[in-house]
Each structure stands twice: as C-alpha cells, then as structure tokens.
C-alpha cells in the first residue's frame, strides 16, 4: 500500500514538471511569435533609401525634412534607422520585428502588417478622398521631349476612364473622369522605370493595356523615384515613375509630369504591437530619434 501511494505521488510530481516545462515552452513561443509586447523596449525605426519618392514625401509631410540656417532642405531621419530599398522589404521587415515601425503606400498595404491611425484618422481611400486623412501624395509619370506614338497611346489609356478604373480597383485614388480609351493600338516598345511604390499599379495598367493593345511591348524596371526620373532625363527609358512631386531641377531638364493617381502614406507596425493611433508629432519625433522607446507613446 505504501509503495502504491509513493508511486502515485511520484507520477503526480512528474506530470507537474512536464506541465511546467510545457507552460514555459508556450511562453517562449508566444514571445517569439510576438504575442507579448514589452513597452519598455526600444523602437526600431525602418526607413526607405535616399532617392525614394516615398521617403521624400514621408519626410516632407511629417516635417522630418526641414530647412537649415542656410535655407537648405535637410532630412533629419535618425541615423539609427534601418534603411530598406523597396516596399516589399519594408513590409517584410516590419512583419518580422514586433518593435519596428515603418511606412508604405496605402495601395500596397496588406494584412501582414498593421496600419496606424494618424491624429485619430484611419488611412483609407475614402478618408484620403475626403481630405480627412492628410498624409497623401501624387503618383506621377514623366516624359521628356517628343514621345513615340505607342508611348502617347499608353498614357492616353492610363488617363482614360478605363485606366482610371484600374487605378481605383487597385486601392488608389483616380484623378480624372475622362472618356473611355479610343486609341488605334499602335505597335512598339515602351520602357518604364522608377518608383517601387508606383510599380505595382503600373504592372496592373500594363496588363490592362496589353489586353486591349497586344501590338505593344512594355518593360517595367523597378527602382526608386530619383532613378526613374534620371533615366528619363538620360534617355534610358520612355516613362519615369515617381511617388513624389518633381523637383525644379528635374522640370528644368525638360520633363513633362502627369499625375496618374493619388495615394495615401501609411505608418505601419507589427501586428503584435498594441499601438492603434499616433499623432503626427509623435511620428515626427520617432523618425527623428527624439522618441526612442515605445513607453513614450504607449501607456
């Protein structure tokens, strides 16, 4: 009898140990999966590369870029920021780091990350259209000098009701209410280069246009806004894509800009982050390095 009781107690002891180990394992897994958020941790700022139109628009809209005493525009993004070179890497980086914060195009937003309200306003197409959500910028294409018939025809498609429908269907804001496309479907090749934010929309416009005009060939080279604009200036491509306004020097180089859509800029965090809303001033302070811990914006 005594031996039976002893064995029974020993069995209970072993079960308790195993249960404890299991619980510890679950807690560890939760931390790894981002289910536990420590607000005392440092904010991991992720920004885009210099030359990115998305970065240019972001630092301007949030006041991160300001004039110095000599009147020069200076980008005060913190030197601690991790720099990534396209939208896809930005989203992957934020999705993989629970303490990170970054920014992307509204049209590129998916469910791998969480979009924050800014000043209490949700970043949606309707809020950008109404002007409630003020963090928005244009998507621009640029050409130089005389352009080929097929390039002109593609641009006319983009700005037609057919092209602007593609804009709207892909989560961006159309800019015109023009008649339907009525081009004569010329043959030829078009090279488009530039912004990784505009590129996903351009791919959809290319697909829709080629369905109507199979005589055309369109090559899209994705990089950043500045590279795209310089490629047009240098005659390397026919159409440059920019997710920012053109600079005076670029206009003086003979470029013709056309706004093809409007797009919101979205501040994103990891889905495990409890943050829901930040003020514009808090965003500015985070990206300039004045605010460095989550506890300063989460209470």
UniProtKB/TrEMBL annotation:
Q: Which UniProt keywords apply?
A: Lipoprotein, Palmitate, Phosphate transport, Signal, Transport
**Which positions carry the signal peptide feature in this UniProt record?**
1-25
Which residue numbers delimit the PBP domain? 41-161, 181-296
Q: Where, subcellularly, is it found?
A: Cell membrane
How would you describe this protein's topology in the membrane?
Answer: Lipid-anchor
Predominant location? membrane
Q: Name one Pfam family in it.
A: PBP_like_2
Among the entry's GO cellular component annotations, what is one? plasma membrane
- Tell me which domain of life the UniProt entry assigns to the organism this sequence originates from: Bacteria
Biological processes per GO annotation: phosphate ion transport
Q: Share what the entry says about its subunit structure, partners included.
A: The complex is composed of two ATP-binding proteins (PstB), two transmembrane proteins (PstC and PstA) and a solute-binding protein (PstS).
What role does this protein play? Part of the ABC transporter complex PstSACB involved in phosphate import.
Q: Which family does it belong to?
A: Belongs to the PstS family.
Q: What is this protein called?
A: Phosphate ABC transporter substrate-binding protein, PhoT family
**Organism, scientific name:** Caldicoprobacter faecalis
């Amino acid at each position: 009898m005594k031996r039976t009781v002893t064995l029974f107690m020993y069995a209970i002891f072993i079960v308790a140990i195993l249960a404890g180990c299991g619980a510890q394992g679950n807690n560890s897994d939760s931390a790894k999966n981002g289910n536990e958020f420590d607000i005392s941790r440092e904010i991991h700022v992720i920004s885009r590369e210099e030359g990115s139109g998305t970065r240019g628009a972001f630092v301007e809209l949030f006041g991160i870029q300001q004039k110095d005493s000599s009147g020069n525009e200076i980008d005060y993004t913190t030197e601690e920021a991790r720099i990534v070179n396209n939208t896809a890497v930005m989203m992957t980086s934020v999705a993989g780091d629970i303490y990170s914060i970054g920014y992307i195009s509204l049209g590129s937003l998916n469910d791998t990350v969480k979009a924050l309200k800014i000043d209490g306003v949700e970043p949606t197409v309707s809020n950008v259209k109404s002007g409630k959500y003020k963090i928005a910028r244009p998507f621009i294409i640029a050409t130089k000098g005389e352009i080929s018939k097929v390039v002109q025809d593609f641009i006319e498609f983009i700005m037609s009701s057919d092209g602007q429908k593609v804009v709207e269907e892909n989560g961006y804001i159309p800019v015109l209410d023009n008649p339907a496309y009525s081009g004569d479907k010329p043959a030829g090749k078009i090279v488009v280069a530039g912004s990784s934010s505009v590129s996903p929309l351009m791919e959809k416009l290319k697909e829709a246009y080629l369905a109507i005009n199979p005589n055309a060939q369109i090559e899209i080279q994705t990089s950043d806004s500045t590279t795209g604009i310089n490629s047009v200036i240098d005659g390397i491509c026919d159409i440059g894509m920019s997710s920012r306004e053109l600079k005076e020097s670029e206009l003086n180089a003979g470029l013709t800009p056309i706004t093809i859509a409007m797009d919101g800029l979205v501040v994103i965090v990891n889905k495990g982050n409890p943050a829901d809303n930040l003020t514009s001033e808090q965003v500015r302070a985070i990206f300039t390095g004045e605010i460095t811990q989550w506890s300063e914006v989460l209470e």
